[in-house]
Fold these 2 entries.
Entry 1:
Amino acid sequence: MTKQNIDLRDRERILAEKAAKREVLKEARRKERAEKIKERTYVEEFDRGVYDIKNPNKYEIMLSKGLNEEIVREISAIKEEPDWMLEKRLEALAIYKQLEDPTWGPDLSELNMDEIATYIRPKAQMESNWQEVPDEIRKTFDLLGIPEAELDYLSGVGAQYDSEVVYHNMKDYLSLQGVVYTDFESAVEEYPEILQEYFGTCLKPDLHRYSALHYAVWSGGSFVYVPEGVEVDIPLQSYFRMNAPGAGQFEHTLIIVEKGASLHFIEGCSAPRYNTINLHAGGVELFVKEDAKLRYSTIENWSRNMYNLNSKRAIVDKNGVIEWISGSFGSRVSMLYPASILVGEGARSEFTGISFAGAGQTLDTGAQVVHKAPNTYSTVETKSISKGGGQAVYRSLVQVDEGAYGCKSNTDCQSLMLDSHSRGDTIPTIILKNDDVDFGHEAKIGRIDDQAIFYLMSRGLSEEEAKAMIVRGFAEPVAKELPLEYAVEMNELINLELKGAIG
Amino acid sequence: MSKLLEVNNLKVAVSDAEILKGVNLEIGRGEVHVLMGPNGAGKSTLARAIMADPQFEQVEGDIYYDGENINELSPDERAKLGIFLTFQNPLEVAGISIEDFLRTTKMELTGEDISVLKFKRELQEQMQDLDLDLTYADRYLNVGFSGGEKKKGEILQMSVLDPDLIMLDEPDSGLDVDAVRIVSETVADFLSDKNKSCLIITHHSAILESVKPDYAHILIGGKMVKQGGPELIERVNHEGYNWVREELGLAKVNGEVLR
Amino acid sequence: MSDKMIRGNTLPALTWRWMDVNDVEIKLKNKDIIPYTALDGVGKIDERMKQVFYDLDHGISEEVVRMNNEQCNLANHWEISDNKPIELKLPQSKENPLLVDQNQIVVPPLQNGTVVLYNFSEDETRVERNSTVLIDVENDAEMTLVLIQRLNEKSVSNVSVVARVGDGARLNLATVELGAGNTVFHYMVDMEGFGAESHVKTAYLGSGNDRLDLFYHVRHIGEECISDIQVNGALMDHAVKSFRGTIDFVEGCSGSDGNEEEFAILLDDTVRSIAVPLLLANEDDIVGNHAASAGQIDDEQLFYLMSRGLSRKESEGLIVESRMTPTFDQIPDQELRDDLRREVHQRILRR
């Protein structure tokens, strides 16, 4: 815009002209948008709110409110744990009592910590009833084609017969190779030396309030040990491990992949997990030794009342590789930042993730990578989608320490917003403490390109189908890293989310 | 009389992978050499190694320029001796005009002060020879240049800096027909006027119409496998490299695309 | 007055506390009221405008604004017209160890103006500078603000720029940070108008024990707004830089396009580079992009220049200088521009 010395009269005239042109343009744009809004298929979301849990008094005697030492001791006693584990629980409890919720991020004020006390008692958990699970959840299972046998696990109740059998077969095959795969309680009993050496060393109770809580009341989870040089050729899936009571809320996963070994571990399932209490504070500790490789895939899909405050961390040794594949769906609030600590020279971390926030949801997820050794390498590729007022936040840290020379790190995060009510925020932090680093970070926020929709529609797809295809394409980097069944389920899940058909 | 450039048993690696496996090459004053070979043979690597490209490590061997061993010299020191390499994708340097850049580097090279006016005039002549618009000199170095403009820029730099050994890496690529002709003529004039030496990496460049090659070399798999006269170039153009491979007992390659 | 540590430049969206990037420590220590004698007169500002802008944004922090009010020793209120650049030289030295200035710039509709504020040290005395600049760019107007900071490495520079841009109007901001051991910069712009634009270019060079905090908060409020932040600089010795730029798409800013790019050249292994490039979006009909990269000078680039006969340090100097060119080009005074380029070049050569 170039302006010259302008005469007063001329000025007024020019201003008036410009303003008039602007009005015309504004009107035109408004009309364009109004038409688009009419055309958009806004599907009414179910008004979920918080699930009513009917008749909580059906369960065992209610303990006094608040999480206290008595409850922790009771948990430990029921599990018949050794003293050292009880010690750890009590230490964590002490830390928990001193920590506050974070000052940043999603609002956690409605999370009622007092209710936790009531529901973590193992007996209470076991008696929850399939009938209590809302219809919408059960309907989703149908839509996703999940077999009957798995429904029980997914709804947080009792044993599952088919899975039980499959699990045992898998166990036999693995033990031939020296691979250990058990539930966490059994691991405490059968492998005390290993557990004492590793438990709580990667993910520490004082990391934040919910890791402290986790360590005080953990229950269920998996322990996997892959000996040196063993390449486990089938992915291990966690839902076979869901027998322990209290599982699904505070499970602890500990995986050790020894030198030169490799493993693919899949956690979770794409059907919504319904829990009697609305908090999931799990903990995952991964130890990837020299030259080892671990791929940790998760699809988390919690019911819409859930607060999913998960902590996952991996320590990677020399030339080790950790691959995180992460899909976050559902929940009311999720806070999830898998962290890779690269301590050995040449270690690598690759993170691929997708999150989908629909109405009433806040998904605050991301990744953390700390390069502590030279010549380490990391990539982060994330996609977030927000719709119907949902809020998707990408939050991350990439740090390269002093002395960590020759590191390379690249981040690419994209946010797709499907309507104007949603929020997509990107909050990355990059801290570089030496100059011999090759670092790049790119982020994009936007909406689906109208031209792309037009193109697909011109090939015969409805607008809804076109959008779904584009969103699936957006999610493809994650989908292609998953075993086929999971990828298919994830795509189905995305379709359902788009249609607003999930509770 | 010693050769201008002598390369003895040069072994060059990048990240532990050996690319040049003991290359020998001699270029005398006033000679035009053509370097050919299939993709990935290491042709560009050789030129860059002679220029001391930091991404390559000289593992073994010696490079002599005008009788002096230059193994330890940095790129700017080699440039000052009179070696020049054209880049495929020359760096963009915003903030310095072509004219400023050329005058600065020329002053570096000669160690003398150069009058702005005098230089401007000479530069304009050279730009005209290359059919470059006069405003070209005011533009920032390579910023927003088309492929052709970048290439011509490299040749302009060559004219101004007046090196004795020029290495042209695929001088044709990315140029339209007119530009090719102009570049070829400029290079040909430059070489003949001052008895310069030249190493051209190509096998089919139109430049060979204007610049008559004296010798041809074929590099395959990091080794100089054949040396001879210009008739080698014709043969490669017609038959590709399989006949060479056969002679050496190497596996033949099907469907080789010669550009 | 307590000596409690003041913190400022708080991020609009907080993140993990332990990383200590949510805000920054303010090092203004001089609490005296001292006149500024390098210019004649103190000047006056429009109180109402001050209040209106204060309601928009508190600059670096309330505390710093309070100090700015209490210690103000220079005030300017400019109504731009006639396209004549306003250039102020603001030296500091033993005679003028403290500069606390309040500047207001109003650009009436269709006007076009440039204001250059050039702050520099005349001697080795530690000086402090606490400046505020409020800018109101009215409909269809265009304004360029150039801030050049060249205080010595003992000094502290705090600058707050708060702006508002109307329909079809455009604000260009060029900032050069070449001195001051402690630099805190704050830019907040509300692009309220339809088609409003904000274009920022920053160049910095950190050496010795310099600490720089470069904070930008660009809000897209009106429809079809366009914004762009380009930060280019180099760090050597033990310098620390943090770039915290936020592009904020407020609901209703349909058709807006926001970009931020930050490139840091790291010249010694003892430097520290921190970047928190935020993208906040509450509107889907937008395009937001940010790119951040940091590292040593590209080998290929170095090789190219060296192959033309320039020594390594000279080549580095040329590359760093060239990155800063888009910012330097905004400075109307050619001599000053050349002088700045020379300084950058020299500092790289000497390291």
Entry 2:
Amino acid sequence: MIQKTAAQMADALAKGETTSVELTQAHLDRISAVDGQVKAFLHVDTEGALAQAKDVDARRKSGEKLSPIAGVPLALKDVLAQRGVPTTSGSKILQGWRPPYDSTVVSKLKDAGVVIMGKTNMDEFAMGSSTENSGYGPTFNPWDLTRTPGGSSGGSAAAVSAFEAPLAIGSDTGGSIRQPAALTGIVGVRPTYGAVSRFGLIAYSSSLDQAGPFGRTVLDTALLHEVMAGHDPKDATSIDSPVPAVVAAAKSGDVKGMKIGVIKQLQGEGYQKGVQARFDESLQVLASLGAEIVEVDCPSFEYALAAYYLIAPSECSSNLARFDAMRYGLRVGDTDGASAEAVMSATRDAGFGREVKRRIILGTYALSSGYYDAYYGSAQKIRTLIIQDYAKAFTQADVLVSPTAPTTAYKIGEKVDDPMAMYLGDVATIPVNLAGICGMSLPAGLADEDGLPVGFQIMAPAMQDQRLYQAGAALEAALLSKWGAPILSKAPELKGAK
Amino acid sequence: MALPTYDEVIAKWDPVLGLEVHVELNTNSKMFCSCATEFGAAPNTQTCPVCLALPGALPVVNEKAIESTILIGLALNCKIAPYSRFARKNYFYPDMPKNFQISQYDEPICYDGYVDVEIETEEGPKQFRIEIERVHMEEDTGKSLHVGGATGRIHGADYSLLDYNRAGIPLVEIVTKIVPGTGKYAPEVAKAYVAELRDILRGLKVSDVKMEQGSLRCDANVSLKPIGSDVLGTRSETKNVNSLRSVERAIRGEMIRHAELLNEGKKVKQETRHFQEDTGLTRSGRSKEQAEDYRYFPDPDLVPVTPAAEWIEELRATLPERPSLRRKRIKEEWNVPDKEMAAMINADVLDIVEATVLLGADPTKARTWWLGEISRIANDQNVAVADLAITPADVAELVALVAAGELTDKLARQVVEGVIAGEGKPSEVVAKRGIKVVNDDGALMAAIEKVCAEQADTAEKVRGGHLPAAGALIGAVMKETKGQADAARVRELLLGHLGQASN
């Protein structure tokens, strides 16, 4: 049962072939069996999940009209607040905190009857690309347990890839959904900025953060997308317009006559050979399906990484100021006579990891008087240029494409002491965040040299998320018939699995 | 060296003012969340994930606060920006939950306005134009209560308690441009400006404008430059100025303090100072020599404020009568002399006098009570007239009692004391104290004869034509009759008794 797609599970539930309790229990069993090796979860809410499953089964029995994925279990990135359930954003500074409120995404999931099984591991406050920056230890890539699953939503991606959950939610500030999706052989979508409410999403970089869905197929991902998106008056940056028809697009999956733009700057040099090969091959598949492939020029993308590493740290230096030991979370050094300042300082020193401190310091510097214009101000200008590059490119193509990440999954510890090398892994995903548009990563096959998954990235203009699903579903179907079986069937069996 | 006198200060130095007024709006909910804003609720009962800055919570702007701010801007003759943004002001302090304050930085919603204020001078009424630099929106902080230690300040306290009820209450900050050219009138001009602002805000019904509760707070920037010089001196910023009277006192005190330093060849430190109500002096607070770096940047959680031009015009059409015009109207309707009008404004009794008149009292009588006896008591008790336990209705009743001949002015003063002491309405005080006018000439004559016998020498002087001596005798008679006699009638009878025709 756990090998099925979420759409198949939903179908079985609707037909009464299984119950949500059964389905949830099967996944909880899988988690018990394999998560000791994968370490995708920080917290498994066994009781809560089964209670939700029981509730949705009862609602179904009473004849209530349910959402298409009601009763399907899901793994939630620990960045999202869930009432009463430990929520840490991967940081020691929030160890033991149980939110008194639900994020809007969680409310929507609950309303839709989606069963939340637990909270998944992540780079601390979503700062990182390998999940190694978690305050609670790394997550391991189910394809090769010596490698990272990517990040920062590595726990969510690994959980879906390892069949611990059919669906998961991540958040994507610079590629944190798309890159781990690529590295674990699954589908991940970063929706248009403002399409999914950020209320209750623990902020890293407010102008770039966006929660989004993971699934093993394009359709599964669309089903979750439709449930979690929509206008929210509690988020001032939320877009007040209807959710694009992503499920319909995923079901149609047609690229005939579609113009697909290959971004000149996001390929070739710096991209692993096997990654480039699978990307080129996918382009040929799309062309064979009737798409027109064009090349587009986005000259400002060269500066995207630099702009990102000024904007995101600047915003995070302010967003993370609230972790001060006064109202919640860790408190260190509160001995007799210690001043509030001393307690704040000791708590932040003990509670934040190295990468978080590095970015807070970077951002504090970039916003300082006398440096603001040179750093934060310039970065905002680059952001405008990138938006203009995209706007121009989208006059030449309906969607744009690139490899999702320059490499396949790398070894745990390989880049941990070289932040620049780690940052370069986000070069292809970051422009989407800076422009506030949407992007998808879906499996393009395995790299010849290491047999690890390669991701194919599709980008579409703001609130045109359905185009991602339309193109993605077409490519997925063509590749599936070429491979003969889903790519995850090629992953090695995890020990302990039945 | 002794402190220079105020006259010595202004003979040599020219003050330059800058005033920052914070106004708490009286919206039902907070600036960025739906929490209640009532004053005086139990600590931390008016909080939510947003104003406690729980992880993940996001601010959403209160539309009513924007409307109130635009109204304020319009009433202060400001331009309203078609596009303005919120910015984060970053600094750590335990009573600020996010450790940044959402404010407006280089893009305020209202800018470039002015307020005209009038003060009474030796040369007659004089008008000053105070130019407004900006009016912007921000959120208030929580409150810290530092327990233990000698000073009640964070340093030296045993522990601190935090109340976040106030965190996120909408604040509007009204900042003047520098105000030069007020000379010796600087303290009065500043006070008149804050009073005018308060009147305008009250008229707009956007704030409770209660200085003592902190819903209107004034920071006064003062610097001195030598008379005739164009070079601005170093300023100090005085906070904690909690009444109109304190605005005047604080500025006067700072002018004297600055002059003393400058006269001695010392430098004025650029710093924040705290006004102390009891001494009228300021004490040093945070030093601002090293300007704090607040790392302002546009708040990415909020969208720009873009009020439609039609909306602004709709709001402009709802502006109430401008207080200065209202004063002109009142002056004419009641036929008030300049000096009396200025006195009423200075004493801040115009609203209360108008309320008394609206209850039927004669304008002159109403004014005389509030400005005279009642103001004197307020002064003695060091409180505002409005805070005394006497209402316009009480004064209207009092005026009616005097007009009906049931009280003399002197007796009415006793009644005022009684009302203020909490003894009830004027009629109740009259009843309880047994106050009544003694109209019985027989009783008065008995008292007169008694007094003239006791003070035979004085009586003899009056009999001899030395009329000023009669005052002492009248006083003694009044004392004898416990003040319940009509002094004019006593005089008449006394002079008759001593063979002097009364006039």
